[in-house]
Fold this protein.
Amino acid sequence: MKSYLFHTTFLAIVACLLWSSAFAGIKIGLPYITPLQFAGIRFFISGLLILPFTLKWKNYWYFVRNNFSVILTVALLNNLIHYALFYIGLSMVPAALAAIVIGSGPLFIALVAHFYMPDDKLTFKKLAIFLVGFGGIALVSLGRNDFSSVGNISITGVLLLLLVNLISGFGNVIVARDKQNIPPLVFSSSMMIIGGGGLFLISIPIEGWNFGPKPFEFYAALAWLSFLSAAAISIWFTLLKRPGVKVSNLNFWKFLIPVSGAILAWTLLPEEKPGLVAIIGMIIIASALVMLNIYRRRHS
C-alpha cells in the first residue's frame, strides 16, 4: 500500500485533483482583489509553505545560488509570463473558448517535449491518443458553457492562450532536464517565492494597491490556493525529475483537471448541472487515459 501511494500515476492524479479545485478558490477570492496581485500573493505564500520541508538554510541557499539562472527562468515562465499572458488572453475571448484552448495544454507540452527531450518523441499513435483526449476536453467545455458569444472571438486572445500552453511546455521540459542539480522541493519553493514576489511587484503599477479589510471567505480561499499550489507543484516537480518519467505522458494526466473541476462544480454549485455532452466528453477522456497507459506499457 505504501509503495502504491508513491507511484507516479497515483501522485500525478493527486496533483491534478488539487489543481482542479483551484477554479473554485479563484472564483471566491477574485471579487475582493485584482488577478495578478491575487496570484502573486498566492504563489509567494506557497513557496514559503514548502520551506520547512526543504534542506537546512545553508544547503538551500547553496542550491539556489548555484542554479539561480535555471530557477529564475522557470519562475519567469511559470509565474510571471504565464499568468500575465493568461489573464490578458482570457479578457479577449469568451470563457468557454478559453477553457478549450487551455485544455489543449497537454498536447502542446507533448509537442515541446518531442523537440527538446530525445527520449520523448511524439509518434502518430501517441498523437492520436492526445487528440482523442483533447476532443473530450472540448465536449466537457461545450457541455458546461454557453457558446453563444464565441462568434465574438479575438484571434490575438486565442494566440496568447496557445502561447501560455507552449510556455508551460518549456517550463516542464526545463525541470525534467534538470534531473540531478536541484532537489525538487528547493526548486518548487524558490521558483514560487521568486515568481510570486515578482508577479506581486509587477501587479502594483498595473493594477494599483488593493489592500484593506476583506471577508473571511477571501482568506479561506487564499489559504487553500496557497496550500494546493505548494502541494501540487512540489509533487509535479518531483515526478518530472524521476528517472524514466516522460514529460508528455505525465502531462496527459492534466486532462483530468477540467473533468474533476466540472464534477466539483456540479457538487458544490447549485447553478451547475451535469449535461449529456459533458458526460460523453468525460468518458472519452477516460478512454484516452486507458489507451495511453496501454501504449506506454507496450513501449516501455
Notes: Residues 27-299 form one domain.
